[in-house]
Amino acid sequence: MYKHILLATDLVRTGKGVAHRARALASQFGARLSIVYVIEPFSTYGLPLMVDVGTANVKHAKQLMIELGRELQVSAQHQYVETGSPKKEILKLAESLPVDLIIVGDQGRVGLSRLLGSTAMSVLHDSHCDVMLLKAHPENDAAGL
Fold this sequence. Notes:
Blueprint: E1 4-8, H1 15-29, E2 32-39, E3 43-44, E4 47-48, H2 55-72, E5 79-83, H3 86-96, E6 101-106, H4 112-115, H5 119-126, E7 130-135, H6 138-142
Parallel strand pairs: 1-2, 1-6, 2-5, 6-7
Antiparallel strand pairs: 3-4
């Protein structure tokens, strides 16, 4: 059914459980799995600041991506660390690869952050392909699931 799945991860908050479930789905469908992490620049009042996100931040993100890629058996050529608006970068990459399923982990936001929207909802509404939202379960991450 799916041939190429893109896991959009924040590398920390959504947890490894989401990543491992994405790997399991890719295996179940015999699909290629790619992973993307987007470093979002600082913003003020909804306007992006032209601030260098820092070489150290990018280097650290790439190292975390390499570790996650190794754990999920995703080759380096299918690991992406981008900078910009998460929604825009995820959608742009999904179209350029192309993928037929985007998996996004739900961080369980509440209050004002939920009201203002989330990357997952933006991707869902603007994607050219299917989008699957997987709940992060911290208790499963502790167990390595």
